[in-house]
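Obj: model holo form, ligand = 2-acetamido-2-deoxy-beta-D-glucopyranose.
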Amino acid sequence: MRSIIFTLLVLIAIVNCDLVKTTSCFENPTLTVDAVDVNPVIAKPGDNVTSIIKGTANKEVTGGKLTVEVFLRTIRLFAFTYDLCKIGTCPVTGPYTATVVQNVPKIALSGVYSTKNTAVDAAGNILSCVQFDFQVKK
Ligand SMILES: *[C@@H]1O[C@H](CO)[C@@H](O)[C@H](O)[C@H]1NC(C)=O
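Output (holo structure tokens):
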């Protein structure tokens, strides 16, 4: 019985998640990123896209910021900055979850966009860097 319930929970979790494939752009990060769930994974211009980032802090982080750079092919179109303590809970210790909600500009063109997400501490030291793609479709 217990294993049936567990299987159901796993299935529900899989159906509800749009886990995106991430690649790391910084070695030995203080904040590891284990999973990024993007909803909706195919956005329309004007949509609010919610990204839930789950990972682990290898050292206590008391504050800092996350910069999200958005590229279409090689052109940097947008950059958004978030306070780490507003998208997550400070101090960040052990397993953490951060939630970023970003509006897709109404003028956005259809296409596959890539993002570079860099977290730095208050002194500007890089804590983490991951890249992932998302799609905009009118
Ligand atoms: C996106 O979020 C903003 C601010 O919370 C809200 O005013 C707006 O209606 C939302 N747009 C959509 C398409 O959900």
